[in-house]
């Protein structure tokens, strides 16, 4: 359900602890525009966005969200200027190296979904090392969608199903939504309950299209670098005001 921009100031005491979204997906949008408005280069906005990630992790832990999936880099982002792409590829290493001890302290488990193709070795190494160093944590799952595109994911899943049918591992008659979902990159996670998109844009941008069939959509005009705990609480509160019927009455 798409609604207008939310304006109510919300305290954590107003959030119903019995109705917390288990999985929150976030499109972290507006880094470049935030920087431009301040007369700064775009890369300054991307670096400031790392601070917003830290704020969201703490806020999600406070209210009991189990999974946060961040759209960190899309398969379409390769079209950006080379200098900006190279900087974006350096951010996982910078962020995770700097924050790994704090993430462990907060019992956060780092995960990644996406496609390894084209990703620099140093980027992959940083993310996989963070996964390894946090694999025994039992708290919030911080899931980075890196070099991810939903249409590509669906195409790759379809190809994998075709291969398994031809190999006799499954039959055509066995294929249903549940089976198809097992071929998606998110097969180990529940579908997102809530999507947050910052910066005022009102689109999904090829993010988790299969998984968000019944996700509640929330949009804020705040740019990602200025997104804070209060913004996160507002999104959770608005989510709790909606009736989720999943096609029923």
Short description, anyone?
The protein is of the alpha/beta class. It is built from seven helices and six strands, in the order βααβαβαβααββα.
The poorly predicted ranges are: none
- For the record, the CATH class of the domain at 21-109 and 119-149 and 191-216 and 224-240 is Alpha Beta
- Alpha-beta classification: alpha/beta
What does the largest sheet look like? 6 strands, parallel
The percent range for strand residues is 5-15%
Overall radius of gyration: 18 Å
Task: Using the alpha-carbon principal axes, give the shape.
Answer: globular
Q: What is the fold named in CATH at topology level of the domain at 21-109 and 119-149 and 191-216 and 224-240?
A: Undecaprenyl pyrophosphate synthetase
Number of strands: 6
Strand order of the largest sheet: 3-4-2-1-5-6
Task: Compute the separation of the termini in Å.
Answer: 15 Å
Helix/strand order, N-terminal first: EHHEHEHEHHEEH
Helix fraction by DSSP (H/I, runs of at least 4): 40-55%
Any overview of this molecule?
By secondary structure, this protein is α/β, with parallel strands linked by helices. It has a domain at 21-109 and 119-149 and 191-216 and 224-240: Undecaprenyl pyrophosphate synthetase, CATH 3.40.1180.10. The chain is built from 7 helices and 6 strands, in the order E-H-H-E-H-E-H-E-H-H-E-E-H. The chain has helices spanning 31-37, 42-63, 82-105, 121-134, 150-166, 177-181, 229-240, and strands spanning 23-27, 67-74, 109-114, 141-148, 194-197, 216-219. The protein has a 6-stranded parallel beta sheet, sandwiched between helices. The radius of gyration is 18 Å and the shape is globular. The two termini are 15 Å apart.
């Amino acid at each position: 359900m798409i609604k207008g921009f939310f304006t109510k100031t919300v305290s954590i005491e107003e959030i119903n602890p019995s109705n917390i979204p288990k999985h929150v997906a976030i499109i972290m949008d507006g880094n470049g525009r935030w920087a431009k408005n301040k007369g700064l280069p775009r890369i300054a906005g991307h670096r400031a966005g790392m601070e917003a990630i830290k704020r969201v992790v703490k806020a999600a832990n406070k209210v009991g969200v189990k999974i946060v999936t961040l759209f960190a880099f899309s398969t379409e982002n390769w079209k950006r200027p080379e200098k900006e792409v190279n900087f974006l590829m350096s951010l996982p290493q910078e962020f995770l190296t700097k924050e790994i001890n704090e993430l462990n302290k907060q019992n956060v488990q780092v995960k990644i979904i996406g496609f390894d193709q084209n990703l620099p070795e140093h980027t992959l190494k940083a993310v996989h090392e963070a996964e390894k160093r946090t694999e025994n944590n039992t708290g919030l799952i911080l899931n980075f969608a890196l070099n991810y595109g939903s249409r590509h994911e669906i195409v790759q899943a379809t190809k994998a199903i075709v291969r398994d049918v031809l190999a006799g591992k499954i039959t055509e008659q066995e294929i249903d939504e549940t089976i198809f979902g097992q071929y998606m990159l998110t097969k180990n996670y529940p579908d997102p309950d809530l999507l947050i998109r910052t910066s005022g844009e009102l689109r999904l941008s090829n993010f988790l299209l299969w998984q968000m069939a019944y996700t509640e959509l929330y949009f804020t005009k705040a740019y990602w670098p200025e997104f804070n705990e209060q913004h996160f609480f507002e999104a959770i509160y608005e989510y709790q005001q909606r009736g989720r019927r999943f096609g029923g009455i």
